[in-house]
Design goal:
The structure is a homodimer. Chain A has 9 helices and 2 strands. The termini of chain A are far apart. Helix content of chain A is 59%, strand content 2%. The radius of gyration of chain A is 21 Å and the shape is flat. Chain A has helices at 14-28, 35-42, 56-68, 85-102, 107-112, 118-133, 138-161, 179-184, 194-216, and strands at 163-164, 167-168. In chain A, β1 and β2 form a beta hairpin. The structure holds a DNA duplex.
Chain lengths: 218, 218
DNA sequence: CCTCCATTCCTACGGTGTAGGTTTCGTTCC
DNA sequence: GGAACGAAACCTACACCGTAGGAATGGAGG
Protein backbone atom coordinates (compact mmCIF):
# COMPACT_ATOMS: atom_id res chain seq x y z
CA UNK A 1 0.00 0.00 0.00
CA UNK A 2 2.60 2.54 -1.10
CA UNK A 3 1.25 6.03 -0.79
CA UNK A 4 2.31 9.01 -2.77
CA UNK A 5 5.29 10.96 -1.49
CA UNK A 6 4.40 14.03 0.48
CA UNK A 7 4.08 17.19 -1.48
CA UNK A 8 3.22 15.54 -4.78
CA UNK A 9 -0.13 16.58 -6.15
CA UNK A 10 -2.96 14.10 -5.82
CA UNK A 11 -5.34 16.13 -7.93
CA UNK A 12 -7.81 16.52 -5.10
CA UNK A 13 -10.58 19.06 -5.33
CA UNK A 14 -13.94 19.59 -3.72
CA UNK A 15 -15.68 18.39 -6.84
CA UNK A 16 -13.68 15.20 -7.27
CA UNK A 17 -13.99 14.36 -3.59
CA UNK A 18 -17.74 14.87 -3.77
CA UNK A 19 -18.10 12.79 -6.92
CA UNK A 20 -16.24 9.84 -5.44
CA UNK A 21 -18.21 10.31 -2.23
CA UNK A 22 -21.50 10.02 -4.11
CA UNK A 23 -20.33 6.84 -5.77
CA UNK A 24 -19.24 5.39 -2.46
CA UNK A 25 -22.50 6.16 -0.70
CA UNK A 26 -24.45 4.78 -3.64
CA UNK A 27 -22.61 1.50 -3.38
CA UNK A 28 -22.24 0.96 0.36
CA UNK A 29 -24.72 3.25 2.08
CA UNK A 30 -24.40 6.17 4.45
CA UNK A 31 -23.54 4.03 7.47
CA UNK A 32 -20.34 2.69 5.97
CA UNK A 33 -19.35 6.06 4.56
CA UNK A 34 -16.49 7.86 6.27
CA UNK A 35 -13.39 9.89 5.75
CA UNK A 36 -11.14 6.87 5.85
CA UNK A 37 -12.97 4.82 3.24
CA UNK A 38 -13.26 7.83 1.01
CA UNK A 39 -9.54 8.50 1.33
CA UNK A 40 -8.72 4.93 0.46
CA UNK A 41 -10.92 5.13 -2.64
CA UNK A 42 -9.14 8.32 -3.63
CA UNK A 43 -5.74 6.75 -3.00
CA UNK A 44 -4.96 9.40 -0.46
CA UNK A 45 -4.35 9.97 3.24
CA UNK A 46 -7.53 10.64 5.21
CA UNK A 47 -6.31 13.98 6.46
CA UNK A 48 -5.62 15.26 2.98
CA UNK A 49 -9.34 15.62 2.48
CA UNK A 50 -9.49 18.17 5.25
CA UNK A 51 -7.48 20.63 3.18
CA UNK A 52 -10.39 20.87 0.77
CA UNK A 53 -13.38 20.24 3.04
CA UNK A 54 -13.64 21.40 6.63
CA UNK A 55 -15.11 18.36 8.36
CA UNK A 56 -17.54 15.52 7.95
CA UNK A 57 -20.59 17.76 7.99
CA UNK A 58 -19.13 19.83 5.16
CA UNK A 59 -18.27 16.62 3.35
CA UNK A 60 -21.88 15.49 3.47
CA UNK A 61 -22.92 18.92 2.26
CA UNK A 62 -20.62 18.54 -0.72
CA UNK A 63 -22.02 15.10 -1.51
CA UNK A 64 -25.63 16.27 -1.35
CA UNK A 65 -24.81 19.31 -3.45
CA UNK A 66 -23.25 17.05 -6.06
CA UNK A 67 -26.36 14.95 -6.56
CA UNK A 68 -28.51 18.06 -6.68
CA UNK A 69 -26.65 19.29 -9.74
CA UNK A 70 -28.03 16.29 -11.58
CA UNK A 71 -31.49 17.81 -11.44
CA UNK A 72 -31.83 19.66 -14.69
CA UNK A 73 -34.92 20.77 -16.54
CA UNK A 74 -34.27 21.73 -20.16
CA UNK A 75 -34.97 25.35 -20.99
CA UNK A 76 -38.22 26.16 -22.72
CA UNK A 77 -40.21 23.59 -20.79
CA UNK A 78 -42.43 26.33 -19.46
CA UNK A 79 -43.62 27.23 -22.92
CA UNK A 80 -43.00 30.21 -25.11
CA UNK A 81 -44.68 32.75 -22.87
CA UNK A 82 -43.12 31.32 -19.71
CA UNK A 83 -46.51 30.91 -18.10
CA UNK A 84 -47.04 27.18 -18.15
CA UNK A 85 -45.95 26.74 -14.56
CA UNK A 86 -47.70 23.44 -14.20
CA UNK A 87 -45.70 21.79 -16.95
CA UNK A 88 -42.52 23.20 -15.49
CA UNK A 89 -43.43 21.94 -12.02
CA UNK A 90 -44.11 18.48 -13.44
CA UNK A 91 -40.80 18.31 -15.26
CA UNK A 92 -38.89 19.57 -12.26
CA UNK A 93 -40.59 17.06 -10.00
CA UNK A 94 -39.84 14.20 -12.36
CA UNK A 95 -36.23 15.18 -12.74
CA UNK A 96 -35.98 15.34 -8.95
CA UNK A 97 -37.56 11.90 -8.66
CA UNK A 98 -35.17 10.44 -11.20
CA UNK A 99 -32.21 11.80 -9.27
CA UNK A 100 -33.58 10.41 -6.02
CA UNK A 101 -33.97 6.95 -7.53
CA UNK A 102 -30.47 7.06 -8.99
CA UNK A 103 -29.05 7.90 -5.56
CA UNK A 104 -31.36 6.42 -2.99
CA UNK A 105 -28.74 6.11 -0.27
CA UNK A 106 -27.68 9.73 -0.72
CA UNK A 107 -31.17 11.17 -0.88
CA UNK A 108 -31.90 11.33 2.87
CA UNK A 109 -29.13 13.90 3.15
CA UNK A 110 -31.05 16.34 0.97
CA UNK A 111 -34.11 16.31 3.19
CA UNK A 112 -32.29 17.33 6.34
CA UNK A 113 -29.78 19.86 5.10
CA UNK A 114 -31.12 23.32 4.18
CA UNK A 115 -30.64 23.63 0.43
CA UNK A 116 -28.89 26.91 -0.26
CA UNK A 117 -26.68 25.89 -3.17
CA UNK A 118 -27.02 28.07 -6.28
CA UNK A 119 -28.26 25.18 -8.38
CA UNK A 120 -31.17 24.50 -6.04
CA UNK A 121 -32.05 28.15 -5.71
CA UNK A 122 -31.92 28.67 -9.47
CA UNK A 123 -34.39 25.87 -10.13
CA UNK A 124 -36.69 27.26 -7.48
CA UNK A 125 -36.41 30.79 -8.79
CA UNK A 126 -37.37 29.60 -12.24
CA UNK A 127 -40.46 27.76 -11.02
CA UNK A 128 -41.57 30.56 -8.76
CA UNK A 129 -41.06 33.15 -11.51
CA UNK A 130 -43.19 31.06 -13.86
CA UNK A 131 -46.01 30.86 -11.34
CA UNK A 132 -45.85 34.55 -10.74
CA UNK A 133 -45.96 35.25 -14.46
CA UNK A 134 -49.16 33.20 -14.58
CA UNK A 135 -50.51 35.62 -11.97
CA UNK A 136 -51.21 33.16 -9.22
CA UNK A 137 -51.86 34.75 -5.82
CA UNK A 138 -48.56 35.69 -4.20
CA UNK A 139 -49.15 33.74 -1.03
CA UNK A 140 -49.81 30.58 -3.00
CA UNK A 141 -46.59 31.08 -4.93
CA UNK A 142 -44.67 31.73 -1.73
CA UNK A 143 -46.05 28.55 -0.17
CA UNK A 144 -45.32 26.39 -3.18
CA UNK A 145 -41.69 25.83 -2.28
CA UNK A 146 -42.64 24.15 0.97
CA UNK A 147 -45.71 22.43 -0.45
CA UNK A 148 -44.08 20.87 -3.47
CA UNK A 149 -40.66 20.04 -2.10
CA UNK A 150 -42.09 19.08 1.25
CA UNK A 151 -44.20 16.52 -0.54
CA UNK A 152 -41.39 15.40 -2.82
CA UNK A 153 -38.95 14.90 0.03
CA UNK A 154 -41.40 13.13 2.29
CA UNK A 155 -42.85 10.92 -0.39
CA UNK A 156 -39.51 9.92 -1.89
CA UNK A 157 -38.07 9.28 1.54
CA UNK A 158 -40.91 6.91 2.31
CA UNK A 159 -40.70 5.13 -1.01
CA UNK A 160 -36.92 4.83 -1.09
CA UNK A 161 -36.34 3.79 2.51
CA UNK A 162 -39.09 1.20 2.22
CA UNK A 163 -37.20 -0.54 -0.55
CA UNK A 164 -33.97 -2.43 -0.10
CA UNK A 165 -31.64 -3.71 -2.77
CA UNK A 166 -33.89 -6.71 -3.28
CA UNK A 167 -36.90 -4.57 -4.05
CA UNK A 168 -39.90 -3.37 -2.10
CA UNK A 169 -41.09 -5.09 1.03
CA UNK A 170 -44.35 -3.80 2.45
CA UNK A 171 -45.12 -4.70 6.05
CA UNK A 172 -47.37 -7.66 6.68
CA UNK A 173 -50.67 -6.60 8.22
CA UNK A 174 -52.97 -8.46 10.54
CA UNK A 175 -56.35 -8.35 8.74
CA UNK A 176 -58.13 -8.59 12.09
CA UNK A 177 -56.57 -5.41 13.47
CA UNK A 178 -56.45 -3.40 10.27
CA UNK A 179 -59.28 -4.50 8.01
CA UNK A 180 -59.48 -1.39 5.86
CA UNK A 181 -55.79 -1.18 5.15
CA UNK A 182 -55.72 -4.85 4.33
CA UNK A 183 -58.56 -4.35 1.90
CA UNK A 184 -56.67 -1.52 0.24
CA UNK A 185 -53.44 -3.49 -0.13
CA UNK A 186 -54.15 -4.66 -3.70
CA UNK A 187 -54.24 -1.02 -4.79
CA UNK A 188 -50.71 -0.43 -3.56
CA UNK A 189 -48.99 -2.81 -5.95
CA UNK A 190 -47.27 -0.01 -7.79
CA UNK A 191 -45.49 1.23 -4.67
CA UNK A 192 -42.79 3.60 -5.83
CA UNK A 193 -43.78 3.43 -9.49
CA UNK A 194 -43.96 6.37 -11.85
CA UNK A 195 -47.70 5.90 -12.14
CA UNK A 196 -48.12 6.26 -8.40
CA UNK A 197 -45.84 9.28 -8.39
CA UNK A 198 -47.89 10.89 -11.13
CA UNK A 199 -51.15 10.27 -9.31
CA UNK A 200 -49.92 11.89 -6.12
CA UNK A 201 -48.13 14.73 -7.87
CA UNK A 202 -51.40 15.35 -9.65
CA UNK A 203 -53.20 15.54 -6.34
CA UNK A 204 -50.78 18.11 -4.94
CA UNK A 205 -50.86 20.26 -8.07
CA UNK A 206 -54.66 20.09 -8.07
CA UNK A 207 -54.57 21.41 -4.52
CA UNK A 208 -52.39 24.31 -5.53
CA UNK A 209 -54.64 25.16 -8.46
CA UNK A 210 -57.71 24.93 -6.29
CA UNK A 211 -56.29 27.24 -3.68
CA UNK A 212 -55.17 29.62 -6.41
CA UNK A 213 -58.69 29.70 -7.81
CA UNK A 214 -60.15 30.36 -4.39
CA UNK A 215 -57.48 32.95 -3.63
CA UNK A 216 -58.10 35.10 -6.69
CA UNK A 217 -61.87 35.10 -6.30
CA UNK A 218 -62.48 35.20 -2.56
CA UNK B 1 -18.46 7.07 40.13
CA UNK B 2 -19.56 4.06 42.16
CA UNK B 3 -21.70 1.79 40.07
CA UNK B 4 -24.23 -0.69 41.25
CA UNK B 5 -23.00 -4.11 42.20
CA UNK B 6 -23.53 -6.74 39.55
CA UNK B 7 -26.77 -8.63 39.71
CA UNK B 8 -28.76 -5.98 41.53
CA UNK B 9 -31.74 -4.80 39.56
CA UNK B 10 -31.43 -1.45 37.82
CA UNK B 11 -35.08 -1.33 36.79
CA UNK B 12 -34.24 -1.21 33.13
CA UNK B 13 -36.89 -1.85 30.52
CA UNK B 14 -37.38 -1.08 26.87
CA UNK B 15 -39.86 1.66 27.77
CA UNK B 16 -37.67 3.40 30.33
CA UNK B 17 -34.62 3.23 28.09
CA UNK B 18 -36.62 4.72 25.22
CA UNK B 19 -38.04 7.49 27.40
CA UNK B 20 -34.64 8.58 28.66
CA UNK B 21 -33.33 8.28 25.12
CA UNK B 22 -35.99 10.68 23.85
CA UNK B 23 -35.09 13.16 26.55
CA UNK B 24 -31.40 12.90 25.73
CA UNK B 25 -31.89 13.40 21.99
CA UNK B 26 -34.20 16.34 22.67
CA UNK B 27 -31.53 18.02 24.74
CA UNK B 28 -28.30 17.24 22.90
CA UNK B 29 -29.26 16.13 19.40
CA UNK B 30 -28.84 12.93 17.45
CA UNK B 31 -25.12 13.41 16.82
CA UNK B 32 -24.21 13.32 20.47
CA UNK B 33 -26.57 10.46 21.21
CA UNK B 34 -25.04 7.08 21.85
CA UNK B 35 -25.16 4.01 24.00
CA UNK B 36 -22.52 5.31 26.36
CA UNK B 37 -24.20 8.64 27.11
CA UNK B 38 -27.53 6.95 27.49
CA UNK B 39 -26.06 4.44 29.92
CA UNK B 40 -24.51 7.22 32.00
CA UNK B 41 -27.85 9.01 32.15
CA UNK B 42 -29.48 5.79 33.31
CA UNK B 43 -26.74 5.20 35.89
CA UNK B 44 -25.88 1.92 34.28
CA UNK B 45 -23.14 0.17 32.36
CA UNK B 46 -23.39 0.65 28.56
CA UNK B 47 -23.62 -3.06 27.89
CA UNK B 48 -26.60 -3.51 30.19
CA UNK B 49 -28.75 -1.81 27.60
CA UNK B 50 -28.05 -4.60 25.13
CA UNK B 51 -30.00 -7.08 27.24
CA UNK B 52 -33.16 -5.12 26.53
CA UNK B 53 -32.43 -3.76 23.05
CA UNK B 54 -30.46 -5.58 20.41
CA UNK B 55 -28.28 -2.83 19.00
CA UNK B 56 -28.11 0.83 18.13
CA UNK B 57 -30.53 0.52 15.24
CA UNK B 58 -33.10 -1.12 17.50
CA UNK B 59 -32.43 1.58 20.07
CA UNK B 60 -33.29 4.29 17.57
CA UNK B 61 -36.38 2.31 16.62
CA UNK B 62 -37.46 2.32 20.26
CA UNK B 63 -36.87 6.05 20.56
CA UNK B 64 -38.88 6.86 17.44
CA UNK B 65 -41.64 4.53 18.53
CA UNK B 66 -41.80 6.32 21.87
CA UNK B 67 -42.42 9.74 20.37
CA UNK B 68 -44.99 8.29 18.00
CA UNK B 69 -47.13 7.20 20.94
CA UNK B 70 -47.56 10.87 21.80
CA UNK B 71 -49.67 11.33 18.69
CA UNK B 72 -53.21 10.86 19.89
CA UNK B 73 -56.47 12.02 18.39
CA UNK B 74 -59.41 11.89 20.81
CA UNK B 75 -62.15 9.49 19.81
CA UNK B 76 -65.24 10.92 18.20
CA UNK B 77 -63.33 13.53 16.24
CA UNK B 78 -64.64 12.07 13.03
CA UNK B 79 -68.22 12.85 14.00
CA UNK B 80 -71.13 10.66 14.98
CA UNK B 81 -71.41 8.83 11.70
CA UNK B 82 -67.67 8.42 11.34
CA UNK B 83 -67.69 10.02 7.92
CA UNK B 84 -66.05 13.39 8.55
CA UNK B 85 -62.68 12.20 7.31
CA UNK B 86 -61.46 15.72 6.66
CA UNK B 87 -61.83 16.78 10.26
CA UNK B 88 -60.11 13.60 11.39
CA UNK B 89 -57.26 14.18 8.95
CA UNK B 90 -56.84 17.74 10.23
CA UNK B 91 -56.71 16.67 13.86
CA UNK B 92 -54.31 13.85 13.14
CA UNK B 93 -52.05 16.17 11.17
CA UNK B 94 -52.05 18.77 13.93
CA UNK B 95 -51.30 16.22 16.59
CA UNK B 96 -48.45 14.94 14.46
CA UNK B 97 -47.14 18.47 14.00
CA UNK B 98 -47.28 19.14 17.73
CA UNK B 99 -45.29 16.01 18.43
CA UNK B 100 -42.73 16.96 15.81
CA UNK B 101 -42.25 20.39 17.34
CA UNK B 102 -41.91 18.92 20.82
CA UNK B 103 -39.17 16.60 19.59
CA UNK B 104 -37.44 18.30 16.69
CA UNK B 105 -34.18 16.44 17.06
CA UNK B 106 -35.94 13.07 17.21
CA UNK B 107 -38.25 13.71 14.30
CA UNK B 108 -35.84 12.93 11.45
CA UNK B 109 -35.78 9.34 12.69
CA UNK B 110 -39.46 8.92 11.92
CA UNK B 111 -39.08 9.89 8.29
CA UNK B 112 -36.46 7.27 7.49
CA UNK B 113 -37.62 4.25 9.42
CA UNK B 114 -40.63 2.37 8.06
CA UNK B 115 -43.40 2.89 10.57
CA UNK B 116 -44.85 -0.48 11.45
CA UNK B 117 -45.58 0.02 15.14
CA UNK B 118 -49.17 -0.74 16.18
CA UNK B 119 -49.81 2.82 17.30
CA UNK B 120 -48.92 4.23 13.87
CA UNK B 121 -50.91 1.59 12.03
CA UNK B 122 -53.93 2.12 14.25
CA UNK B 123 -54.05 5.85 13.54
CA UNK B 124 -53.73 5.17 9.84
CA UNK B 125 -56.40 2.49 9.89
CA UNK B 126 -58.78 4.89 11.56
CA UNK B 127 -58.23 7.63 9.01
CA UNK B 128 -58.44 5.30 6.07
CA UNK B 129 -61.60 3.68 7.41
CA UNK B 130 -63.18 7.09 7.80
CA UNK B 131 -62.40 8.02 4.22
CA UNK B 132 -63.75 4.75 2.97
CA UNK B 133 -66.94 5.25 4.96
CA UNK B 134 -67.33 8.58 3.17
CA UNK B 135 -67.19 6.59 -0.06
CA UNK B 136 -64.18 8.22 -1.59
CA UNK B 137 -62.72 6.33 -4.57
CA UNK B 138 -60.60 3.46 -3.34
CA UNK B 139 -57.46 4.48 -5.18
CA UNK B 140 -57.62 7.92 -3.62
CA UNK B 141 -57.95 6.41 -0.17
CA UNK B 142 -55.08 4.03 -0.86
CA UNK B 143 -52.87 6.90 -1.96
CA UNK B 144 -53.71 9.11 0.99
CA UNK B 145 -51.23 7.47 3.30
CA UNK B 146 -48.34 8.47 1.08
CA UNK B 147 -49.81 11.81 0.12
CA UNK B 148 -50.58 13.06 3.58
CA UNK B 149 -47.70 11.63 5.55
CA UNK B 150 -45.31 12.23 2.70
CA UNK B 151 -46.22 15.88 2.86
CA UNK B 152 -46.17 15.98 6.67
CA UNK B 153 -42.76 14.38 6.91
CA UNK B 154 -41.18 16.46 4.18
CA UNK B 155 -42.68 19.74 5.31
CA UNK B 156 -41.88 19.26 8.97
CA UNK B 157 -38.37 18.11 8.15
CA UNK B 158 -37.78 21.29 6.19
CA UNK B 159 -39.29 23.53 8.85
CA UNK B 160 -37.59 21.88 11.80
CA UNK B 161 -34.13 21.47 10.34
CA UNK B 162 -34.18 25.06 9.15
CA UNK B 163 -34.57 26.29 12.71
CA UNK B 164 -31.87 26.06 15.33
CA UNK B 165 -32.19 26.64 19.04
CA UNK B 166 -31.99 30.37 18.47
CA UNK B 167 -34.98 30.35 16.14
CA UNK B 168 -35.41 30.39 12.40
CA UNK B 169 -32.69 31.53 10.05
CA UNK B 170 -33.67 31.78 6.41
CA UNK B 171 -30.84 31.97 3.89
CA UNK B 172 -29.81 35.37 2.64
CA UNK B 173 -30.61 35.78 -1.04
CA UNK B 174 -28.90 37.84 -3.69
CA UNK B 175 -31.73 39.95 -5.15
CA UNK B 176 -29.86 40.16 -8.45
CA UNK B 177 -29.78 36.41 -8.97
CA UNK B 178 -33.13 35.53 -7.46
CA UNK B 179 -35.48 38.50 -7.94
CA UNK B 180 -38.77 36.62 -7.62
CA UNK B 181 -37.84 34.76 -4.50
CA UNK B 182 -36.55 37.96 -2.95
CA UNK B 183 -39.84 39.65 -3.75
CA UNK B 184 -41.71 36.80 -2.08
CA UNK B 185 -39.62 36.86 1.09
CA UNK B 186 -42.00 39.14 3.04
CA UNK B 187 -44.70 36.48 2.65
CA UNK B 188 -42.57 33.88 4.37
CA UNK B 189 -42.41 35.58 7.75
CA UNK B 190 -44.51 32.92 9.41
CA UNK B 191 -42.05 30.15 8.51
CA UNK B 192 -42.99 27.14 10.60
CA UNK B 193 -46.05 28.77 12.12
CA UNK B 194 -49.42 27.10 12.62
CA UNK B 195 -50.96 29.48 10.12
CA UNK B 196 -48.53 28.38 7.45
CA UNK B 197 -49.10 24.75 8.33
CA UNK B 198 -52.84 25.24 8.03
CA UNK B 199 -52.54 26.90 4.65
CA UNK B 200 -50.46 24.08 3.20
CA UNK B 201 -52.46 21.33 4.84
CA UNK B 202 -55.50 22.97 3.31
CA UNK B 203 -53.87 22.84 -0.09
CA UNK B 204 -53.11 19.14 0.19
CA UNK B 205 -56.58 18.27 1.42
CA UNK B 206 -58.10 20.34 -1.35
CA UNK B 207 -56.09 18.29 -3.81
CA UNK B 208 -57.39 15.06 -2.34
CA UNK B 209 -60.97 16.29 -2.47
CA UNK B 210 -60.53 17.48 -6.02
CA UNK B 211 -59.16 14.16 -7.17
CA UNK B 212 -61.94 12.37 -5.32
CA UNK B 213 -64.52 14.48 -7.13
CA UNK B 214 -62.91 13.78 -10.49
CA UNK B 215 -62.58 10.12 -9.63
CA UNK B 216 -66.22 9.50 -8.82
CA UNK B 217 -67.54 11.38 -11.87
CA UNK B 218 -65.05 10.68 -14.63
C1' DC C 1 -29.87 -24.92 51.37
C1' DC C 2 -28.75 -25.53 46.68
C1' DT C 3 -29.35 -24.70 41.83
C1' DC C 4 -30.33 -21.98 38.04
C1' DC C 5 -30.87 -18.11 35.25
C1' DA C 6 -31.89 -13.43 34.17
C1' DT C 7 -29.55 -9.27 34.73
C1' DT C 8 -25.75 -6.57 35.33
C1' DC C 9 -20.89 -5.28 34.95
C1' DC C 10 -16.07 -5.71 33.01
C1' DT C 11 -12.51 -6.09 29.47
C1' DA C 12 -11.08 -5.58 25.06
C1' DC C 13 -11.10 -4.79 19.95
C1' DG C 14 -11.55 -2.56 15.72
C1' DG C 15 -13.42 1.39 13.97
C1' DT C 16 -14.30 6.67 13.77
C1' DG C 17 -13.48 11.98 13.30
C1' DT C 18 -9.98 15.13 13.70
C1' DA C 19 -6.22 18.21 16.13
C1' DG C 20 -1.39 19.22 15.58
C1' DG C 21 2.92 18.81 13.47
C1' DT C 22 6.14 17.42 9.67
C1' DT C 23 7.58 16.79 4.97
C1' DT C 24 7.77 17.84 0.30
C1' DC C 25 7.02 20.14 -4.14
C1' DG C 26 6.21 24.02 -7.26
C1' DT C 27 6.44 28.84 -7.65
C1' DT C 28 8.31 33.42 -7.11
C1' DC C 29 11.68 36.73 -6.34
C1' DC C 30 16.38 38.43 -6.07
C1' DG D 1 20.58 29.71 -10.38
C1' DG D 2 19.56 29.62 -5.65
C1' DA D 3 16.90 30.74 -1.61
C1' DA D 4 12.52 31.58 0.60
C1' DC D 5 7.69 30.67 0.84
C1' DG D 6 3.11 28.67 0.85
C1' DA D 7 0.04 25.07 -0.53
C1' DA D 8 -0.89 20.34 -0.36
C1' DA D 9 0.12 16.17 1.07
C1' DC D 10 1.34 12.86 4.85
C1' DC D 11 2.05 10.94 9.84
C1' DT D 12 1.06 10.44 14.71
C1' DA D 13 -1.89 10.39 18.36
C1' DC D 14 -6.17 10.92 21.01
C1' DA D 15 -10.72 10.50 22.60
C1' DC D 16 -14.73 8.36 21.52
C1' DC D 17 -17.87 4.93 19.52
C1' DG D 18 -20.58 0.25 18.98
C1' DT D 19 -20.37 -4.22 20.54
C1' DA D 20 -18.51 -9.31 21.13
C1' DG D 21 -17.45 -12.41 24.84
C1' DG D 22 -17.26 -13.59 29.45
C1' DA D 23 -17.39 -13.18 34.61
C1' DA D 24 -20.00 -11.99 38.65
C1' DT D 25 -24.13 -11.53 41.40
C1' DG D 26 -28.60 -11.64 43.42
C1' DG D 27 -33.27 -13.45 43.59
C1' DA D 28 -36.64 -17.33 42.42
C1' DG D 29 -38.00 -22.26 42.56
C1' DG D 30 -37.22 -26.63 44.25
Amino acid sequence: MARRAQGTAAGLSRERIAAVGVDLVDRHGLDKFGVRRLAEELGVDPMSIYHHIKGKAALLDAVSEAVLTEVVVPAGAEGADGRDWEELARRTAHSYRDMAHRHRRVFPLLTTRPQTSPVALAALERLVASMRAAELPEQVVADTQLTLFGFLNGYLLAVLSGSGDDGVHLPVLDPGCYPTMTALLPLQTGFGSVAEFDRILDTVLAGIKDRAARGTTP
